[in-house]
Automatic annotation (TrEMBL):
Organism listed in the record: Rugosimonospora africana
Domain spans labelled FtsK: 225-406
Protein's UniProt keywords contain Flavoprotein: no
Keywords: ATP-binding, Cell cycle, Cell division, Membrane, Nucleotide-binding, Transmembrane, Transmembrane helix
Transmembrane segments: 69-89
Listed Pfam families: FtsK_SpoIIIE
This protein's name: Hypothetical cell division FtsK/SpoIIIE protein
Binding-site residues for ATP, renumbered to this chain: 241-248
GO molecular function: ATP binding; DNA binding
Length: 477
């Protein structure tokens, strides 16, 4: 008769070996001591892990036991006074080293509470080999405009997986937006959740520098409140935005940041306003060349710029790889308010071809020779697209469709947080761009130059101009 193997009433198939685990009998006191030791170790671990809550609680408890209510009240009151004095004396260091670290700890508790459901519904939790693996929330850093969450990804995940669900995370954590960037280590990702909006109000213009900093023109403000510095040296700038998005403020901010150089003769502005001249005409005294209706003049000017560039390139060949602007060899910045008017809407085919050819040459070779183009465009889908890739620096203001974001800024940028189609109409001058050294888009607002300020700028900084063979300076004009 075969042996029947029965464990807990279940009949099991015959096994080759039948193993019986030995039963070790220990006295009760030993088990109790073991439980106590285990409990104690766990308590100590928990105490140390949550030191930021347990240590203050112990101190307060000790003071209460020793001095009654007066103890903890005196300590809390004293600390509050100290913090108040610090805040009044040096607000920046108080926020940086006092307030934000505490706020970060506090907010971390909230994030941790919602972390698992948030990760699960965003499908960032991985099921592997019967285990559930969740990305780990490593650190929460509070900033003026929101929180920076450092997260350790599950093996096999990449920052783009988080970027793809950025909008979902935004709503889950009750933020206004979520930007995703790679962390300092390959397994880390940084989620920047924006709460307050430092860009809600119009940004007043920054003072005009006497010598323009071509490696960092101050054009407005970053989301965190810091100044927005944009490099002009060695790049070409394209600004895209729907009508009324504030392209004018970008152009005027660039012109104003260069105005010191215009006065000293280090920078020459050639400005084309093919939409009739209403936007740019007020700055005429600042411009060495200005054209608004005459498309032939614009084509001539672009070809002159190509000639200048070729001549400089020939001279600098073998001497240097980057032209340095001087008063004799100034930087030429060509500003075009509506690029599509030159490259797409122009009906004269011959003129259009001339303009396109000259622009193509300037955009590909101009930067080393000190010839730059700053162009604005309303509709990024039109014929400007072939030129798009020739602009290393691209700024996207409010756009009408989500698909246009990637068209302007590059593939995947909307997923990484550049939600230009969601910028409200009542926030002109707000946009997204990719800054040097950070592949994810940042939200910015450009300074607003109203008509009075533009008139003042034009009056103060106009450079020397040649009119009828005579050199005339701005002050005389
Ligand atoms: N940075 C800014 N901050 C606050 N308000 C702004 C800013 N830029 C523009 N505005 C406001 O928005 C209006 C439209 O801006 P602007 O003329 O620059 O738009 P645009 O993008 O050039 O539009 P269009 O394509 O029609 O020329 C301006 O009249 C001004 O009142
Ligand atoms: Mg405009």
């Amino acid at each position: 008769m075969p042996m029947v193997n029965v464990i807990r009433g279940e009949q099991l198939p015959d096994a080759v070996f039948n193993v019986r685990t030995p039963i070790l009998r220990i006295p009760l006191w030993m088990a109790v001591v073991w439980w106590l030791v285990k409990g104690l170790v766990r308590t100590v671990v928990l105490y140390m892990r949550f030191w930021y809550a347990t240590v203050p609680a112990s101190v307060l408890l000790y003071l209460w036991a020793r001095f009654g209510w007066a103890g903890p009240v005196t300590l809390v009151g004293g600390l509050a006074c100290l913090a108040g004095v610090w805040l009044l004396v040096h607000r920046v260091s108080f926020l940086r080293f006092g307030w934000y670290p505490v706020l970060g700890r506090w907010r971390r508790i909230g994030y941790r509470r919602r972390w698992y459901p948030a990760m699960a519904t965003a499908r960032l939790v991985v099921n592997f080999d019967g285990h559930v693996v969740v990305p780990v929330l490593r650190r929460v850093k509070a900033t003026a405009s929101g929180d920076e969450l450092t997260v350790r990804m599950v093996t096999g995940q990449i920052p783009d997986d988080f970027a793809a669900v950025g909008l979902r995370l935004t709503h889950t954590f009750g933020a206004r937006s979520c930007r995703v960037a790679a962390g300092r280590r390959a397994d880390l990702v940084v989620l920047t959740l924006q709460r307050a909006d430092a860009l809600r109000k119009t940004i007043p213009p920054a003072p005009v520098p006497v010598v323009p900093d071509l490696a960092g023109l101050v054009l407005g403000r970053l989301e965190g409140g810091e100044p927005l510095r944009l490099r002009l040296f060695g790049t070409q700038i394209l600004v895209a935005g729907a009508t009324g998005a504030g392209k004018g403020s970008v152009i005027w901010s660039v012109i104003a940041a260069l105005a010191g150089g215009v006065r000293s003769g280090l920078v020459k502005l050639w400005v084309f306003d093919p939409k009739g001249g209403m936007e740019m005409a007020a700055g005429d005294p600042l411009f060495e060349r200005f054209a608004c209706e005459d498309f032939a003049a614009m084509a001539d000017a672009l070809e002159t710029a190509v000639g200048l560039m070729r001549e400089r390139t020939r001279r600098l060949r073998g001497v240097t790889r980057q032209h340095i602007p001087t008063v004799d060899e100034p930087l030429v910045v060509i500003v075009v308010d509506e690029l599509a008017a030159l490259t797409a809407y122009l009906t004269d085919r011959h003129l259009k071809d001339r303009i396109k050819a000259a622009l193509g040459v300037l955009l590909t070779q101009g930067r080393a020779a000190g010839v730059h183009v700053v162009a604005a465009v309303q509709d990024s889908r039109k014929d400007v697209l072939p030129f798009r890739d020739l602009f290393p620096t691209r700024i996207a203001l409010r756009l009408t469709e989500p698909a246009q974001v990637d068209m302007v800024l590059g593939d995947g940028m909307r997923d990484r947080g550049a939600v230009c189609d969601r910028i409200p109409m009542n926030m002109p001058g707000v946009g997204y761009l990719v800054l040097d050294g950070d592949p994810s888009p940042v939200r910015v607002r450009f300074s607003y130059w109203d008509d009075d300020r533009i008139a003042e700028l034009a009056g103060t900084y106009s450079g020397a101009r040649v009119i009828d063979g005579q050199v005339i300076t701005g002050e005389v004009l």
